[in-house]
Amino acid sequence: MTLRIYNTLTRRTEPFEPLAPPRVTMYVCGPTVYSYAHVGNFRTFVLGDLLRRYLEYLGFEVFQIMNITDVDDRTIKAAAAAGVSLQDHTRPFTRAFFEDRDYLRIRPADVYPSATEYIPRMVELVQRLLERGLAYRGEDGSVYYAVGKFEPYGRLSQIERRELKAGARVASDEYTKEDVRDFALWKAATPDDEAVGAAWDAPFGRGRPGWHLECSAMSLTEVRQRFGVETLDIHAGGVDLIFPHHENEIAQSEGATGRPFARYWVHGEFLFIRGTKMSKRFGNQLTARDLREEGHDASAVRMLICSTHYRQQLNFTDEALEGAAEGVRRLADFRERLADAAAGAAAASAPQEAVDLERGFREAMDDDLNVPRAVGALFTFVRGANRELDAGSWGPPEARAALATLETVLAVLDLLPVSEAVDAALEAWVAERLEARRAARKARDFAAADAIRDELAARGIEVEDTPQGPRWRRRGG
Ligand code: AMP
Ligand code: ZN
């Protein structure tokens, strides 16, 4: 059994074989820090997180690189609109991105190169392409890639090369397949660039890097310096990046090194904000901060993302998020039940339900990272295990073994709510109120007992009466 993953380059699902196992180098195109990243961006970043965690589960040693795009058309425009320097504009959004990443429990990449710190490497790459005759200086002072000179151009996005208009050029970072042209590697400095501090000296003229050049320079530099190679195992991003961004990255990188740039190209489909309240409130710009500020547990957001295969579009709606939150609650309650049942015991050999869980999880994940099916296996396990616990057929050692399997799977999917550090004062107050409620019930003063329950509820405390006594938790936690 081995992981098979869909490779956009070949349009086939292929067995995953990295260049030098157990090492896996993985580059995920990171955020453009002109604003807060939205949930769509984070869907793609969660995909990177799930892929990386599953590779680690399989025993690979993953080195993950995520760039920060802190100079490009959008960041310059946004800084100018805000009337501040590029750096002053992008720095707080970079910080916000890391906070949002942590909120969503995306494991940090090993390095976060930011474009403005790699300018000398970008200049070197342009020079190399000029030397190899793959780039030329336009009369506008910018340097362009001669797309017609790179034979494999169009392989990733499957565009017909005859659509190429020889010598026609485009300066913008983003354009469409219908408009294939020589793209700017290095853009001659404009007064607008100078005004926000987005211009650097280079042998071929003062200017700034194009967005595509940045990713080639940063990814190649990182793997060359660390591992002495010029090929990435995995290059990932959203489907919108296939053309022109990744097509151009290949042209630049392979044009300069003569080696394959990435072995597997993994592209995640888009997330859309649809349906009721959310789309009205946020358009398509719902950010991770909006969700956090609205009090949504990150587990619910992760669960929702996990509900759809990464190569299918995902609709993010209030209802879907509520459904995901409900799933998280069921999972959390079940885990608590299982942990209670396992208390103090050492593990027996895994019961059948746990064996089935791990097999189902692996089969699903190996099949082009079928996370929704893996989540399905998880809930099948919850139902089966609940039945065993109801029937009293699992003793503490079986429960302990089942719990261990559950933890292994959850280490990849990470779907349980974070147990927020409950402050001691609240804890003491709840204990005191629960004792008062017990006394009221004992005195058969049910009105008083109910009033206390309401008082607790008003502070977000939910109480559940179990044979072992009342159990409480914070709502949404
Ligand atoms: P950007 O910050 O615009 O450079 O995008 C960062 C990442 O988010 C890229 O990998 C994009 O492909 C991805 N992305 C952008 N919009 C969406 C969306 N609506 N759904 C999923 N991924 C997206
Ligand atoms: Zn990129």
Gap from first CA to last CA: 37 Å
Tell me the number of strands.
15
**What do we call the CATH topology of the largest domain?**
Rossmann fold
Largest sheet: 5 strands, mixed
CATH architecture of the largest domain: 3-Layer(aba) Sandwich
Number of domains: 3
Which spans of ≥5 residues are poorly predicted at pLDDT below 50?
Answer: none
Structural class: alpha/beta
The Cα radius of gyration reads 27 Å
What percentage of the residues does DSSP assign to strands (E)? 5-15%
Ligands bound to this protein structure: adenosine monophosphate, zinc ion
- CATH class label of the largest domain: Alpha Beta
Overall pLDDT: 93
* Helix content, binned percent: 40-55%
Topology, pairings included?
Blueprint: E1 4-7, E2 12-15, E3 23-28, H1 39-57, E4 61-66, H2 73-82, H3 86-103, H4 119-131, E5 135-137, E6 143-145, E7 169-170, E8 182-188, H5 191-196, E9 207-209, H6 211-227, E10 232-238, H7 242-257, E11 262-268, E12 271-273, H8 277-282, H9 288-293, H10 298-306, E13 314-316, H11 318-342, H12 352-366, H13 371-391, H14 396-413, H15 424-442, H16 446-458, E14 461-466, E15 469-474
Parallel strand pairs: 3-4, 3-10, 7-8, 10-11, 12-13
Antiparallel strand pairs: 1-2, 5-6, 6-8, 8-9, 14-15
Helix pairs in contact: 1-14, 2-3, 4-6, 6-7, 10-11, 11-13, 11-14, 12-13, 12-14, 13-14, 15-16
The structure holds adenosine monophosphate and zinc ion.
The site of adenosine monophosphate (AMP) has 15 residues, from helix 1 and strand 10.
